[in-house]
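Lab notebook, bench 4. The sequencing result for the construct came back, and we need a structural model before the next group meeting so we can plan mutations. Quick request posted to the team channel:

Model the 3D structure of this chain.
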Amino acid sequence: MSELASAMGIRTAEAAIVAELKSGSEDAFSWLIAHYNQPVYSLVYRILDDPSDAADTTQEVFIKVFRGIRNFNADSSLKTWIYRIAVHEASNHRRWWLRHKARETSIEPAVGDEQGVLSIKNTLVDEGKSPLQNVYDEELRARVEVELKALAEPYRTTVILRDIEELSYEQISEVMNIPLGTVRSRLVRGREALRKRLERHPETFGMETAAAREKKRRKGSSMGGQEIEVMP
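Done. Here's the predicted structure in token form:
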């Protein structure tokens, strides 16, 4: 009952904010940008992998929000609607980049080689074991970020929306305009692809490969099966 009341309270508050936005309230738009700028930037950055492009695209997202808020009919939450615009704008920019900018050869070092990557959540809220569950410190998060960026679309965006932004399956379906079954399929395939990429760095993530397990088994057999206690 308390959860229902809380949800109703959130919807009521959101409806009031939307009404203020539609009326052209500058305070409401200031709140909107302050509340959503960083989440939108983080989402766009992970899709584009370029800080400058992400900043420009984030501005475009809020321009689209400003222009389209009067057409917002509350079929989805305000957050879902904004994320849908963000994914659309970032995907369009990425397609443009692949067609045009990628043809250019830059002599400058990659930005990601010199700057720290954005942090990633340590634990993913979902059923089943996630490849990110054992990521605890910045070094490991950095490795996950690198491997996450290497995932093919649309699996990367699906994993980002679910495991980092923590959107529900229904919200992802609305944001990406795809059926729920497709959301689940892409998430499974995306996580599996990410897991395989992380397994290339077993020493970083504390993963024990099949070869390592076999080596340990043979070593144990050669010592007569005697167990040896290794002191920490």
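Residues 120-206 form a domain with the Arc Repressor Mutant, subunit A fold (CATH 1.10.10.10).
Will bring this to the meeting.
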